[in-house]
Amino acid sequence: GEKGDRGNDGECNIDDFYPCNCDTHILTRHSQSDQEPDCPAEYTSLWSGYSLVFFEGNGYGLSQDLGDAGSCLEDFQLMPFMQCSASDVCRHGVRTDKSFWLATDQDADFASKPMNNIDEILPHISRCRVCMGTKYVLARHSFKNMAPECPDDFSELWTGYSYVMVTSSSTSGGGQDLSSAGSCLENFFLPTFIECLGRGTCSYYINNLDYWLAQNQETNQPGMWGMGNVYSGLADILDQGVSRCVVCARNSL
Predict the structure, then answer these.
(1) If pLDDT is split at 50, 70 and 90, which confidence band does 57 have?
(2) What residues contact residue 99 under an 8 Å CB cut-off, 6+ apart?
(3) Which of 36, 71, 184, 247 has the highest CB neighbour number within 10 Å of its CB?
(4) Are 55 and 42 in contact (CB under 8 A)?
(5) Burial of residue 14, with CB atoms counted within 10 A of its CB: 0-12 exposed, 13-18 middle, 19 or more buried
């Protein structure tokens, strides 16, 4: 047919940004107890498991972001990986290999003999759940003893404590992406993780260290802020030491 008449000119305006339900986002939540946590509202459970912090093999460490699915293993093994060489030989449970798991609120007896019974070990291993939703998730840290508010157009999923990284008795360790939900743990426990060895035992060790974001204390003293401050006892640590955080989800239409 014949070419039609030219239409009216349109108007070119700047559009406001509105998020849509077109993306998929994965969120992992850790209970820091022996009970499986629930997914936040409007998120669907993909699987539940056990909260892995990092591996160590031959002195080298590989950390897991606690906000990602890789930190929630569906099965618990004291040593979930094996060591393989170019000679077509693999060894599972090498004595120097280690795995590190988020702990629960069970008493940590540094003087006791390492545990080698699975029924004794499991109550010390945190459970987790991997969730899927359409809302983008981020963590925000206050550097104060109160959790911050979510940014505009975000809604709170949970509040917690600002977790940075861990180190083992060797030179290895691992850290969290501070924008990830894994950097905002809902509970503050010391020690935060438990170490399992290739020889088949798990225990808490005094030379394994946790690192947390610190509060930005107001001070009139010269020099670097917080230098030399020692917080002894859980009450002082929570009130004056460790920073709070919030995990937020982007509102969608």
Answers:
(1) confident
(2) 52, 54, 55, 56, 77, 78, 79, 80, 81, 195, 196
(3) 184
(4) no
(5) exposed
What is the number of residues in the chain?
A: 253
Mean pLDDT of the chain: 88
Label residues 199-215 b or e (16+ Cβ within 10 Å = b): ebebbbeeebebebbbb
C-alpha to C-alpha distance for 211 and 242, rounded to whole angstroms: 10
pLDDT in tens, 209-246: 999 999 987 655 555 555 667 888 889 999 989 999 99
Could you give the dihedral angle defined by the CA atoms of residues 194, 200, 201 and 207, in that order, rounded to the nearest 10 degrees? -60
- Residues 161-178 as b or e (16 or more Cβ within 10 Å = b): bbbebbbbeeebbbbbeb
